[in-house]
UniProtKB/TrEMBL annotation:
The lineage of its organism: Bacteria, Pseudomonadati, Pseudomonadota, Alphaproteobacteria, Hyphomicrobiales. It holds the Pfam family Peripla_BP_6. It comes from the Bacteria. The keyword Signal applies. Residues 38-368 form the Leucine-binding protein domain. This is ABC transporter substrate-binding protein.
Length: 412
């Protein structure tokens, strides 16, 4: 009998210990976990820039979970999916992603995500937040896809207007476009620029739009032709391979006409592909984001904190800022939604409603983007944005302009 009592007492004590471990500590808040799907390209044309874009996502989620989510009673989890920058692959993966994660948000990567999912997301009631500029083919009312930046064409024209003013004179700026029919996004960039040139012949002239394979190796013939036509800028918003091919062509021809790039194929990434960023001397990149110089900006201070405390391994670059800004916008939207509807009631539909009704101040996202105010008019803010312009001067990366006005463009 005594042995039975001792066994019963020990069992009761053990049960009490297990129960104590199962209970949250005093003052702790029960957490609800929400999933995000993270689109990536580890094996396609953007595999070379994924390290910085994807590498910037997890440290910010870890920071937010610890510093913000824990106080709200929310934890964010996410998983990367490699779609090789292919719309058919995105469409194929999507049913499995929904079944596996039941995500409240999607972190998009580029044009294939938009092309494959813009018709599906409204029915699935899952918003997608991009890191890229927008696209004309997605410029529709009542969006479920949100771009913190305007279209690539908006950004390019912001540069053209700035460069034309810097150049001086009254004639239009003559531009050549290097593009490819391999992606809807690439075609869209070219169409938007050509539309602006048609509407503003006194400001911009497109001497030729050159279509090549998605990752060209030799553009000597094409570059020679557009330079003979008087191109003052060669615009390439596609990928690093196209920039390298154009740069090599100019070197072979003994010419030095500025190349304009975007965030995902800019100075750091194209310079790395060239072997030395100094080879990009006199070229430019444009994007409606912070310019990653060495100055102690809010974005740089936040990046340094993530590096020291949350394992940030990405280099300080444009693509890192692109990834940082995207995740910050997503997490601030979740945060505002939780405060609006309750931490246990966050849904994709509720997040979308928050995005359309609650502005995101630039200081909330550490200056990675401008102040953001989304409306039902477009998937990107239609006014109030400014572009950053980076360049290489005397072998060093510097900001050529920080607040180049983004003009209004007619839809194409």
């Amino acid at each position: 009998m005594r042995i039975a009592k001792r066994v019963a007492r020990r069992a009761a004590i053990a049960g009490a210990i297990v129960a104590a471990w199962a209970l949250p500590p005093a003052g702790a808040t029960a957490q609800t976990t929400y999933n995000m799907a993270s689109m990536a390209d580890f094996t396609g044309p953007y595999a070379d820039v994924m390290k910085d874009i994807i590498g910037s996502r997890r440290p910010i989620v870890d920071w937010w979970n610890a510093e913000v989510g824990q106080k709200l009673g929310i934890k964010i989890a996410f998983k990367d999916y490699d779609h090789r920058y292919d719309a058919a692959q995105v469409a194929s993966l999507w049913p499995g992603i929904k079944a596996e994660l039941n995500p409240v948000l999607v972190l998009g990567l580029g044009g294939p995500d938009v092309a494959a999912l813009q018709g599906r997301l409204p029915g699935d009631k899952i918003p997608m937040i991009m890191s890229t500029a927008g696209y004309g083919f997605a410029w529709k009312p009542d969006p479920w896809i949100f771009n913190p930046r305007p279209t690539y064409s908006h950004e390019a024209v912001a540069f053209y207007n700035w460069f034309r003013e810097k150049r001086g004179g009254s004639g239009p700026l003559k531009v050549a476009i290097i593009s490819s029919e391999a992606s809807p996004a690439y075609i869209d960039q070219q169409k938007g620029i050509e539309k602006y040139a048609k509407d503003n012949p006194d400001k911009l002239e497109v001497v030729e739009s050159v279509f090549t394979e998605v990752q060209p190796t030799d553009l000597t013939t094409q570059i020679s032709r557009v330079l003979r036509k008087g191109a003052e800028v060669v615009s390439i918003q596609t990928n690093t391979a196209a920039v390298v091919a154009a740069k090599r062509a100019m070197q072979a021809l003994g010419k030095s006409v500025p190349i304009l790039m975007s965030s995902h194929n800019g100075m750091f990434d194209s310079g790395r592909a060239m072997g030395d960023i100094k080879q990009m001397e006199g070229d430019y990149e444009v994007y409606a984001m912070a310019v990653p110089t060495d100055e102690k900006t809010p974005a740089r201070t936040f990046f340094d904190m993530l590096t020291s405390k949350h394992g940030m391994k990405a280099q300080w670059s444009v693509t890192t800022i692109q990834g940082m800004g995207q995740v910050l916008v997503a997490l601030r939207a979740v945060e505002a939604t939780a405060k609006r509807v309750g931490a246990d009631k966050v849904t994709g539909e509720a997040i979308r409603e928050t995005m359309l009704s609650t502005p995101i101040a630039s200081d909330q996202i550490f200056g990675t983007f401008s102040d953001l105010k989304f409306t039902k008019e477009a998937p990107f803010p239609v006014a109030g944005l400014a572009a950053g312009i980076g360049t290489i001067k005397d072998g060093k990366y510097t900001a050529a302009a920080r607040n180049a006005p983004v003009p209004m463009l007619n839809k194409w």
